[in-house]
Write a structure and sequence with these properties.
With 245 residues, the chain is of the alpha/beta class. Helices cover 38% and strands 15% of the residues. It has one domain: Alpha/Beta hydrolase fold, catalytic domain (Rossmann fold, 3-Layer(aba) Sandwich), CATH 3.40.50. The strands form two sheets. Strands 2-1-3-4-5-6 form a six-stranded parallel β-sheet, with helices on both faces. Strands 7-8 form a two-stranded antiparallel sheet. β1, α3 and β2 form a beta-alpha-beta unit. The chain is globular, with a radius of gyration of 18 Å.
Length: 245
């Protein structure tokens, strides 16, 4: 006798090695970036700022930044932080980073910043916008596999940061209080339907944002898959900054 429920779980089990392997690949890219000058050399271009996820560094974003440069958007900039950093401290660090970028005078007339955050990086972007809503001209935010409403996986990693990512935590309740949302910013929630790190997956869809779900992609592949990079590139204008979502 068939067991539809059991069969439905099989793809999830088979995805575990792929999720684990892609995570190791991102860690390898992070290590490579720390041992070479490639990360520093990539920190040029238009006002697009990238934030990496948990347990990795700026090097993990090199494929996406190189793709954007090849598409004529420039490699942008990256804000590197420690995964154990508290959210407020990391948000302040991002604000200081944007001060330096804006101070370089690279923003054109009516041009705005674009922020792209993977996983934990997306939460730091949102916390920065909550604490400094009018400090910089941010026009669009891409949240890649970001646990906007938490993940039950945090129960198994009891650190100070992960406990704040538990569904229903006081931190997330404050972060998702609608009255704290910065006005005039377009949000795009992007995630894969095979994500095994943010559960339930629906928590990655920020209320009020444009939702894009990618078939067959897990948590880490959101910064490695060309289809995701192309979707972001399609929403960036190399001359004027942003196109309508």
């Amino acid at each position: 006798m068939e067991n539809p429920r059991g069969l439905a779980l099989l793809p999830e089990v088979y995805d575990i090695p792929w999720e684990f392997g892609s995570g190791l690949f991102l860690m390898g890219l992070s290590w490579l970036g720390s041992k070479t000058a490639c990360t520093k050399r990539l920190s040029v271009g238009r006002p697009v700022v990238y934030l990496h996820g948990t347990a990795v560094k700026a090097g993990s974003l090199a494929p996406m930044r190189l793709y954007m440069a090849a598409q004529g958007h420039g490699a942008g900039h990256v804000f590197e932080f420690e995964s154990s950093s508290d959210f407020d401290g990391a948000a302040q660090g991002l604000a200081d980073k944007l001060d330096r970028i804006v101070g370089q005078g690279i923003l054109g007339a009516d041009e705005q910043l674009t922020l792209i955050g993977h996983s934990l990086g997306g939460l730091i972007i949102r916390r920065y916008l909550q604490l400094h809503p009018a400090r910089h001209p941010v026009g669009q935010v891409f949240l890649l596999a970001t646990p906007n409403y938490g993940t039950h996986l945090a129960h198994y990693f009891p650190t100070e940061v992960t406990q704040r990512m538990l569904p229903g935590s006081a931190f997330l309740a404050e972060l998702n209080d609608g009255c704290h949302r910065a006005d005039g910013i377009r949000y795009v929630s992007m995630y894969g339907d095979r994500d095994l790190l943010v559960l339930p997956r629906e928590s990655m869809h920020l209320e009020g944002s444009r939702q894009m779900v990618f078939t067959g992609l897990g948590h880490n592949k959101m910064v490695l898959a060309p289809v995701v990079m192309a979707a972001i590139a399609a929403r960036l204008d190399p001359n004027a900054g942003l196109v309508p979502a």
